[in-house]
Amino acid sequence: MNPSYVRYLLSHYRNIWKSEGHVCLFDKGPTHQLPVHFVVAEFPPTAERGMWTYATCGLSDETNPAPIELHLFSASQTELHVELLTAIAHYHHTEKHLGLWDTVNFGRPWLPGSTCDHGLISLPYLDGPALENPKDCAVRCLWLVPVTKAEVDFKKTYGLEALETRLEEGRFDYLAATRPSVA
Q1: In a domain, 43, yes or no
Q2: Which of 64, 59, 61 is nearest to 141 (CA)?
Q3: Domain membership flag for residue 154
């Protein structure tokens, strides 16, 4: 992976989120199996965005036919998000290329006490096409939404549209780590 790609993504995120993020590295586990320049960027809350944002830079490389990058939002700052995105990057590189509407098992609660232990790869509804489709780059920047196992099972049984309807009807709070499941 080209380090200029990572710099480009960092600049893209900064322009979209109007925040000066910084690079975080997680160096435990088999991170040597990730692309050499892979990092997670952490963006603090701003007056316009009252949440922390964590985003991958270098999740996809030239071996991925449909390159993606992922971001997640949180009410709290924690290295757990860096660890989680690094683990998902490892899965993406060593097990299965992930894409839009896929779900992934976190292998642990999203945050301590959270009922969300899976993630749904979604369109970046809060930021739209400006984030999703960077100029002069084939990558798609997608939103990793923490969900419960019951919600994943509901999606598998009734479909994505039915799950999205349930989330909307339940006034889904994507920042609430201890939110109840809608399924």
Answers
A1: yes
A2: 59
A3: no
Please give the tally of structural domains in the chain: 1
User: Can you give the pLDDT at residue 140?
Assistant: 96
Asked whether 177 and 114 are in contact (CB, 8 A), the reply is yes
| Beta sheet of 103-105, edge-to-edge order | 22-24, 39-43, 52-57, 68-74, 140-147, 118-122, 103-105
pLDDT reported for residue 98? 95
C-beta separation of 120 from 155 below 8 A: yes
Q: Is pLDDT at 97 greater than 70 in this prediction?
A: yes
Residue 64 included in any domain? yes
| Domain hosting residue 122, numbered range | 3-148
- Assess if residue 35 is contained within a domain: yes
Phi, then psi, of 52 in degrees rounded to 5: -80, 145
- What are the tens digits of pLDDT across the range 110-162? 999 999 999 999 999 999 999 999 988 889 999 999 999 999 999 999 999 99
Length of the chain equals 183
Global pTM reads: 0.95
